[in-house]
Specification:
With 232 residues, this protein is mainly β. The chain is 11% helix and 28% strand. Strand 2 and strand 3 form a beta hairpin.
Length: 232
């Protein structure tokens, strides 16, 4: 199975949107509603995102894969020397806290944890999907509601389309504006729940090779250009 190829995957919607979701630019130097997003706290950034979605007549907005961002501004994202971790390795979907999250494919709960550090994943879920005996890949879901930690357990099987979690709210979700971070992973490298969602620019080819674009897991992505490196 080629998880980069939309034609190879019949994925159930991870989040049921209103069909009008927009794409927001969160790249280095970007602005929302005329305001620079660099250095904003979660509350202000969330308000600008809400206003941007409302102006577009929707309650949903995608954040792009492989996008370089300035919003990762604490010691958690320090890299080697001056090369901080800034390259986003998943796709974000901004929406209201409490929005249900569904499994796109049948799988098994591989990891479940609360990465509670500031600007970390918060409640985190990783599913393992086996497409031929002995061959599998993983999907990671970050910034979830706390209830996922009690609702699921390691080793539990889930069906495609099954509700598995909800979108969390700050500060419990890593203190981010409410959104889902979804990421595809080919090999967890024994990193467990510390597998990164953001990479250093100098190592982006390696990390993006391990985490290819998950756009195929979002049926609505077919009408969006969400892969930053492909459209710039």
């Amino acid at each position: 199975m080629n998880i980069v190829d939309r034609s190879a995957i019949d994925a159930a919607p991870i989040i049921h949107t209103d069909g009008k979701a927009i794409v927001v630019d969160l790249s280095t130097g970007s602005r929302l509603r005329g305001e620079a997003i660099s250095g904003l706290d979660s509350e202000r950034l969330g308000r600008l995102l809400d206003e941007t979605m409302a102006a577009a007549g929707t309650g949903f907005a995608f954040g792009r894969y492989a996008e370089p961002r300035e919003v990762y501004d604490n010691e958690h994202f320090a890299g080697d020397g001056a090369d901080r971790r800034t390259i986003h390795m998943g796709i974000d979907l901004f929406c209201a806290a409490g929005t249900p999250v569904h499994a796109p494919l049948a799988g098994r709960v591989e990891l479940l944890a609360n990465n509670a550090r500031e600007l970390d994943y918060g409640p985190l879920l990783v599913l393992r999907h086996e497409y031929t005996p002995g061959e599998s890949f993983y999907t990671l879901y970050g910034h979830l509601g706390l209830e996922v930690l009690d609702a699921l357990e390691i080793g539990q099987n889930v069906a495609a389309g099954q509700p598995i979690a909800t979108v969390g709210s700050p500060p419990q979700n890593g203190n981010w504006p409410p959104h889902l971070h979804a990421q595809a992973i080919l090999d967890l490298l024994d990193l467990g729940t510390d597998f990164p969602g953001v990479a250093c620019r100098s190592q982006q080819d390696y990390w993006l090779g391990l985490s290819p674009s998950p756009a195929a897991l979002f049926p609505e992505c077919a009408r969006h250009e969400l892969e930053y490196l492909q459209c710039n």
